[in-house]
Specification:
The complex is a heterodimer of chains A (about 280) and B (about 325). Chain A is mainly alpha-helical and about 280 residues long. Chain A has helices at about 5-45, 50, 65-95, 100-115, 120-135, 140-165, 165-175, 180-190, 190-205, 210-215, 235-240, 245-280. Helix content of chain B is about 70%, strand content about 0%. The chains are: A mainly alpha (about 280), B mainly alpha (about 325).
Amino acid sequence: MISLAAKRRAVNAVASALMFAATCVGLFFLAWILWTTLRFGIAAMHWDLFLKDTPAPGDGGYGLRNAFVGSVILMCIALLIGVPVGLMAGTWLAEYGGRSRRARLVRFVNDIMLSAPSIEIGLFTYAVMVDPLGHFSAFSGGVALAILMVPIIVRTTDEMLRLVGAEMREAAIALGAPMWKVVTNITWKAARAGILTGILISLARISGETAPLLFTALNNQYYSTSLARPIANLPVVIFQFAMSPYDNWQQMAWAGAFIAITFILLLSVTSRLILQKSVKRP
Amino acid sequence: MESSEAAVGQKLTPAAEEPGTAGRGRPLSADSLFHGVCVSMAGLVGVALVAIVIAIAVDSLPAIRTFGVLGFLKSSEWDPVSEHFGAFPFIVGTLVSSAIAMVLAVPVSFGVAVFISELAPAWMRQPVSAAIEMLAAVPSIVYGLWGLLVFAPAFANLEPWINDHLGALPLVGALFQGPPMGIGMLTAGIVLAIMILPYITAIMRDVFVATPTRLKESAYAMGATTWEVARQILLPYTRTAVTGGIFLGLGRALGETMAVTFVIGNSNNLSASLLMPGASIPSVIANEFTEATSKLYVSSLIYLGLVLIAITLIVQVLAVLLLGSVRRGAVSSR
């Protein structure tokens, strides 16, 4: 006959072991994914990746230059559209909207957009930009990525601005500063580390996005910087190359994945550092 | 401060009554311009969801007219040549792959979250949390690449064992019989589980850590074990948010495109076995969109997107409502 205490201890020991095992499973898959990307990615590193364009099918060449350039262009468009929209909308929520019914509605919609599947954003951009214009374009790809960025920027801007003490605003208003000056010179400045972090995180989020680009920027085998035409980009090239039977294409897919992950990890480490530094400051 | 018109209307009120309105009275002042820009951008964000639903619904109209609603949802035929399209296999594929992901990810997330909040020594908590969160930073295309070229071949070695053991079980046996290809519904579910693990874990960890210490410590003081505290204190106290976190993960799994497209096998036929290839709504859209030549074909794919929105929107609204004031996202979870 086992005593109740012994039974409870045994159950606890088993449960604790399972929780530890669960953590190990999570860490194991992280290590596995990072390790394979690192191993295959570094093995596939070659200067030609940055100097030559994507080769034709069956051609043994090496190169991702057009995809890198295309991805940078797409990210720039997304930043140029997404940052002002997200920043201003977040500012309205924190500075004007407050806890009003309208602000709560905008926050609710934004929360849903925050976790909306990216394929839906891609289809939306296709429906409003690609379909009416009749052709895929780099610009529509940038817009799709911007739509994915905005909710993240809105949320962080809103949260960070609301952390700024009311006394700072009141002091500025008491000195006769108009509201726009209070916001741009006082509260934006006080919350700039948090806002910047949000922008970096949103950039990290979109830099690996593939699904929305399939319906908008598509892909381009050649080097192109035209905003009105389809453009090569890293995620879609990885998708196409990984599915292909060619060895050199698969290697390039790993090289692309490695570079994408490195970029994303650098962004998230930078944003963490910025945030930590600003938190430590009294 | 309600609107720019109101600010203009306050022009004549004495400044002493409205502190802080100085300089805001002039029509088209920098202030009303700034406010106007902020309001319109916030308005843009506010109407985004409705705009998305309307735009996608409009583009699916040709398919809606041809196949109807129930006819489209119930039909299993997907034939681009004769232009007959039905969503049933893809709806099932989406739900089944996500269900596998939830069955695997929810218990593991719970384990990781309790480990971080209750079991792990203090020095270990931050690094383990950060590492699990890093799983969310890995882009889905990399999950797909890894799933197709690394995980699927490894999993194919395990499948004969699954055939022999799980496949021999009564009732559920048929689910686990099939050729050892490595790709298929089960593989898609496993990869999805890894992808949503960090999201569910982050929410559970946050609410477990935020559970009042006096509750936990009273239980510990009464001699409760860690497991009993987790089961009888943490879980009941955080039930709503935990459910919200699970729905958040489910929403992610339902809409995940790239990783699933790589490993689900892309077969438009339904099969009883989880080891067989299948397709989900996102995977069939991603696969066939660029090949779709006719107007009706494209429209049917967008119609599938509309069905996906209907499914994910319910889950997402539930998640947001249940999570309520729980903050989420990489920045706010610090």
